[in-house]
Every structure is written in structure tokens, then in C-alpha cells.
From TrEMBL:
Protein name: Serine/threonine protein phosphatase 7 long form isogeny
Species this protein is from: Cajanus cajan (Pigeon pea)
Single biological process term from Gene Ontology: meristem maintenance
InterPro entries attached to this UniProt entry: AminoTfrase-like_pln_mobile (IPR019557), MAIN-like (IPR044824)
Domain Aminotransferase-like plant mobile per the UniProt entry, residue ranges: 15-114
Domain of life of the organism encoding this protein: Eukaryota
Amino acid sequence: MSDDIKFYRKYFDHTTGKSIWGSVIPLLCLCICEWHQPNRVMRQFGCQQSIPNPPMTPANVHALTLRGKVEDDWATILSPTLEHWGHRYAYHFTPTPPQVGLLGPNSEYMRWYRRKGKLHIDPDEVKESIMVCAL
């Protein structure tokens, strides 16, 4: 067993909160709302990844700004989000079958990913593609 695996192995048993890890819920910090969307990263849970729906960005919290809103009641503004959080255990994603082996290059998901994802990780390749697009 490598040293890296030994180091992280001690964290495998820390599963407090596991019952909501798979919930599609808002995470709130004061007036900031970001959505935890584990259904968009199913492979991290060992499941098959289906083509995800567009990310959740509810209109009532998407472009909130604090400018000039000193007197606003944030509990009222964020009430739909707070209600969703209150029922967080009801919003658990439905697991897909386990992912066995690698995804084939012509699988539905990989075809979608190539259309929507960024294909370049290597900085040199990114520079080349930018230069080609600029010409």
C-alpha cells in the first residue's frame, strides 16, 4: 500500500453526515447560496453518470447583491431556499447502477462530454488551441 493511500485511509471511516451527502440542496452562508449537486458527479459515488440537467441557479438567488440592501429581510428573500434546506433529506439523488470499468469513448455520456466539456488539460495544448482560434 502506498504512503498516499495509507494517509487517506484514516479518513474512510469519517462518515458523519453521509445521509445528506447525496442530497441536491442549497448551501447557505449569510446571503450567499450555492447548490450542492452531487447528481452531476455520480462517478465520484461509484455510479454511472447520466447526462446531467443544466446546473441549478434559481432566479431569486442567482444575482443577489448586498448593495443598498441594509434593511432587507434575508430570511424572507431566501425563504424558498431555506424551505428546501429544511426538507434536505427528501432531495437525495436516485443512484444509478454502479460504474464497472471505464466508459467507452462512444458512450452517450462521453459523446455529450466531448461536446460540452473542456478537452484540454495540458497548458501547452490550450495555448495552441487559443492561437489557432485567434487566427
